[in-house]
Design brief:
single chain; alpha+beta; Chorismate lyase; 2 domains; two-stranded antiparallel sheet; 8 strands; globular; UTRA; Tscrpt_reg_HTH_GntR; DNA binding; DNA-binding transcription factor activity; transcription
């Protein structure tokens, strides 16, 4: 069973401040409200506010200037990273990817997807499930979910392989402009059907990478759940210490 874990308060506050930077409420070059003002405005404790501000500074949205306070820098410069899984999923050309389309159809929205898309629990969404293979062996199971209102006028419901990737397809057919992606990584035991598709022995967990693709307003337009056999994965990150 998969459990939905709500993001910590300081992360949710950081996301709210980030959204206000993006929509121009806090323009680049201006000061953000003081810690006291943020405590009062959001009803959160000072430690929570401090952690949220530190997170935004670390990620390049804010900076501290001595004698002037905390300044808005704006959206950080994008650094090209070819191994971003979300970008890969959005751009994946099914017709050119080794593997097979295992399921296409309307399904009840999974709980963690419903919370991201803002849908009620019993809502239906379109799912495209693709099994990626290497040398004939399954390596990745990708289940992509689309709100019903986004599907009309597209080929997402087709059982034929989609050319060019979902991002390009939706930009052309629905004029959707994807702006950013959030990835959430968790671990769980696979459901029986998932284990069978990935050819996993009993008891082997999977890494679930939930990819949330949003437009500039922050609205999620596509959510993909990428399952990876945990016994074949290694996560590594290199970063500078401040």
């Amino acid at each position: 069973m998969a459990y939905e874990v709500e993001a910590p308060k300081y992360v949710r506050l950081a996301q709210t401040i980030q959204s206000r930077i993006e929509d121009g409420t806090y323009p680049p070059g201006t000061r953000v409200p003081s810690e006291n003002q943020l405590v009062q405005a959001f009803g959160m404790s000072r430690p929570t506010v401090v952690r949220a501000l530190e997170l935004l500074k670390r990620d390049g949205w804010l900076e501290s200037r001595q004698g002037y306070g905390t300044i808005v820098r704006g959206r950080p410069a994008v650094v090209e990273q070819k191994d971003r899984r979300g970008s890969e999923v959005l751009a994946r050309d099914e017709s050119q990817t080794p593997g097979r389309l295992v399921e296409v159809g309307s399904v009840p929205v999974p709980p963690r997807v419903a919370s991201v898309l803002g849908l009620p629990k019993r809502a239906k969404v379109l799912m495209r499930r693709f099994l990626v293979e290497e040398d004939g062996e399954p390596v990745e199971l990708v289940s992509s979910y689309f709100p019903a209102g986004l599907v009309e006028g597209t080929e997402l419901e087709s059982a034929d392989l989609l050319s060019g990737g979902t991002r390009a397809h939706l930009e052309v057919r629905k004029k959707v402009r994807f702006d950013h992606v959030t990835e959430r990584v968790s671990a769980r035991l696979p459901e029986p059907g998932e284990a069978e598709l990935l050819n996993l022995p009993d008891g082997v967990p999977v890494l679930s990478v939930l990819i949330i693709a949003c437009d500039a307003s922050g609205q999620a337009r596509q959510v993909s759940d990428v399952l990876l056999p945990a016994d074949r994965q290694e996560l590594e990150d290199t970063y500078r210490l401040g």
